[in-house]
Specification:
Belongs to the WD repeat coronin family. The protein is built from seven helices and 29 strands. The protein is an alpha+beta fold and 501 residues long.
């Protein structure tokens, strides 16, 4: 197949972004170079004009850029000029050089090497500079120049090499040139965990979704390239270590939490290693690797919302090959004969919509990302706005003026375990929403939109999904029966109490 340079929508050439795909036992096809496009998009491939418009407003070299996960036309960039700038990209893309930025963040005393958007809160940006500081910025202001960050984290003793958030953004993991991995509370800057293990010099660190594990890449004491897996609550010793090779290029880890797949990409390498992440030993299972003679200077990925689901494309890389002055797309294809939407290879994924406002996150709230289905024409799976999270003790006092001991007695008198106050007094809309989600969705599977099965495999999948739905409905029915008995007992006790007066 031929290779081609490709002009990417929203790809400005300032840097490359990160994230990756999964394993289903049937293998992946890798497709490189040119892709079949619509007639309109076919004109967007090929060699770019050397004078193609650029984003140019920094007074020094640009060291990092990140696209806003909730706005496809906004980027943050940081530079050697010690500033961070927020750019609004026109929807018709660039007709001339873009020199007007939307906001400028001024706070670091030395050059800024990393920027990272918060994964669930809107308008929250993190930056790390060579002044050994991580700064938290709130962009939800009318000011065009922001001089004071909301928080400054000063626990690092050397240059910060990488940053990574957990799924809901309540924890921040960093690697530092002092060879330590830290897990930090990003709101207050307190170090919760710190790796003091000297057998692994970490360069990059990555949260592995909701597995409560960290993966770091770096070098061993014998200077072999190495990756290590850690328990995020105990960084005294890694769960497992694996030496890869003796090359010198930095290893960049990518993890797809939807499919539990880990990809290791080496700067200057031509290959990409595939691993499957498990919760039990062995934690990392090597699968195979993609090989190419063209070394990548950097690599980026297409967000899952931009994948071609009709051809079973589960992931798409963009390799920056400086030796040939091109960006090469590499598509990961699951070989399927059916042309219908494949629910099992496209689990619900994070949507381009924040689940928290900036002031809510700064106030101490945490929420998981809003999920969406990649089925064409589908809507968000949890698009209904959620109420603000409250501490459990405050919520209990607000909804239940009666003593906790009395509630426990009501549950135990009937011989049933008491339901939690949070579950008992849950708002009606929340109960209806959970009932509706459990009734019509099973892992994002919509029983009304599913086409009739065409093959025996699809029929078996439909049968297993229905069995799972029946099991969930039975559990829901049992919970309703327990709640009904508890309410009846509560009414009985209240009547007895009134009778005594």
């Amino acid at each position: 197949m031929t290779r081609c340079g490709q002009k990417l929508p929203g790809f400005l050439g300032l840097g490359l972004y990160q994230s990756l795909p999964g394993h289903w036992g049937c293998g992946l096809w890798v497709r490189c170079g040119g892709r079949k496009e619509s007639p309109d998009r076919a004109q967007e491939t090929g060699k770019l004009d050397p004078h193609y418009p650029k984003v140019c407003g920094h007074r020094g070299n640009v060291l990092d850029i990140k696209w806003n996960p909730f706005d496809d036309f906004e980027i943050a960039s940081c530079s050697e000029d010690a500033t961070i700038k927020i750019w609004k990209i026109p929807k018709q893309l660039l007709a001339r050089n873009l020199t007007t930025y939307r906001k400028e963040l001024v706070g670091h005393s030395r050059r800024v090497g990393l920027v990272e958007w918060h994964p669930t809160a809107a308008n929250i940006l993190f930056s790390a500079g060579y002044d050994y500081k991580v700064m938290v910025w709130n962009l939800d202001t009318k000011e065009s120049v922001i001089a004071n960050p909301m928080r400054t984290i000063t626990c690092h003793q050397d240059v910060i090499l990488s940053m990574s958030f957990n799924t809901n953004g309540s924890l921040l993991a960093t690697t530092c040139k002092d060879r330590k991995i830290r897990v930090v509370d990003p709101r207050v800057g307190i170090v919760l965990q710190e790796a003091s293990y000297k057998g692994h010099r970490a360069n990059k660190v990555l949260f592995l979704g909701n597995l409560k594990k960290l993966l770091s890449t770096g070098t061993s004491r014998w200077n072999n390239r190495q990756m290590a897996l850690w328990d995020q609550d105990n960084l005294s010793m890694p769960l497992t270590e694996e030496d890869l090779d003796g090359s010198s290029g930095v290893l960049f880890p990518f993890y797809d939490s939807d499919t539990s797949m880990l990809y290791i990409v080496g700067k200057g390498d031509g290959n990409i290693r595939y691993y499957e992440v498990n919760t039990e030993k062995p934690y990392l299972s090597y699968l195979t690797e993609y090989r190419s003679y063209n070394p990548q200077k950097g690599i980026g990925v297409m967000p899952k919302r931009g994948l071609d689901v009709s051809s079973c494309e589960v992931f798409r890389f963009y390799k920056l090959i400086t030796t040939k002055s091109l960006i090469e797309p590499v598509s990961m294809i699951v070989p399927r004969r059916s042309e219908s939407y494949q629910e099992d290879i496209y689990p619900p994924t994070a949507a381009a919509q924040p689940s928290l406002a900036a002031h809510e996150w700064l106030g101490g709230m945490n929420r998981e990302p809003i999920m969406m289905s990649l089925r064409p024409g589908s809507e968000l799976l949890d698009s209904q706005p959620l109420p603000p999270e409250k501490p459990f003790s405050n919520f209990m006092v607000r909804v239940s003026p009666r003593p906790l001991e009395h509630m426990v007695q009501l549950g135990t008198n009937d011989g049933h375990a008491p339901c939690s106050l949070l579950e008992e007094k849950a708002p009606k809309w929340a109960t209806e929403q959970r009932l509706e989600e459990r009734s019509w969705l099973t892992n994002g599977f919509d029983i009304f939109e599913c086409p009739p099965p065409k093959t025996e495999n699809e029929l078996l999948q439909m049968f297993y999904r229905q069995q799972e739905e029946i099991r969930r409905l039975r559990e829901l029915l049992i919970q309703r029966e327990v709640q009904t008995k508890q309410l009846e007992l509560e009414i009985k006790n209240l009547r007895m109490g009134l009778g005594q007066f």
